[in-house]
């Protein structure tokens, strides 16, 4: 999702030679990018040598780790950094998440994805690799991709958002990556030669979040935009797959927050306008409900 969004933005803009990394360059997704003029190279985030080869001559690398790997995400991110360093890549854009342990003052440790990506952030800083670190919220796309939004089987045109553990009034930071990640990375690339902007972009992690929203507000937005009745339903912990109990519990406790760091001015300064959950509903949920 994220890599594809970056490729789409670069292709649309023009002027860049793009390489994509895939574990299987014969896969349909890889062939799709080849059809757009992307050079697809075989490689894996757990194979550092393949990354070093892929990054040869690169001006910039966009990287995001793959979840649910036995080796975890930290080693993937560290391999990305090492491969950039080996090639003297002038810019790494690393898509990451904050430390769940730090945000919860140690109440939650090892939350899926969060703490491992956060360790990579530290590695980036200690390596002196020129980089911009992006932090995202929960993805707006999850509401359809994870099947949270369902039509009531007994009441046509009545809809429910089913989400594990997280109460309806808890606010989450939301990112719409398929429309926002690409323009963010493109704008960073276009700004990197400006010394003042480069210093500001690399000073601290940049939160790619326009606003926060609660489950109840999501349902209200869907209802207002589509005219369909919609409510929010919290599923009990007993119905939650084991790997997701901790991250959803962490979120339900209100720890997934960026405070006043959302919608940062540096993105406005480089010409990026982030989108809202309402934008996502208009783009994707409306057509989905019409099917």
From TrEMBL:
NmrA-like domain sequence ranges: 2-241
UniProtKB keywords: NADP
InterPro entries named in the record: NAD(P)-bd_dom_sf, NmrA-like, NmrA-like_oxidored
Segment forming the signal sequence: none
The keyword Transferase is annotated on this UniProt entry: no
Keyword NADP on entry: yes
Pfam families, per the entry: NmrA (PF05368)
Family indicated by similarity: Belongs to the NmrA-type oxidoreductase family.
UniProt-recorded name of the protein: NAD(P)-binding protein
Provenance organism: Calocera viscosa (strain TUFC12733)
